[in-house]
Specification:
This protein is an all-alpha fold. It has one domain (19-64). The chain has four helices and no strands. It has helices spanning 2-18, 22-37, 44-50, 56-62. Helix 1 runs antiparallel to helix 2.
């Protein structure tokens, strides 16, 4: 959990400094999550990867 919070904070910091869009930040967080998924054993890995397949537009629509 601490690693996730750290990843979010670092990504947010870099995004603010580089002028990243929300979509780019979302994609970066999804990439970081996929990296964590690949460190897991099956069947947890497959479930984790399924949770990272939502594109930004779909995610945005689901938040309304």
């Amino acid at each position: 959990m601490k690693k996730l919070i750290l990843a979010i904070l670092l990504t947010s910091s870099f995004a603010g400094l580089s002028g990243c869009s929300s979509a780019q930040m979302y994609d970066s967080l999804q990439d970081a999550q996929r990296d964590r998924c690949y460190q897991m054993m099956e069947p947890d890995r497959s479930q984790c990867l399924r949770n990272t397949t939502t594109d930004y537009e779909s995610f945005k629509k689901s938040q309304r």
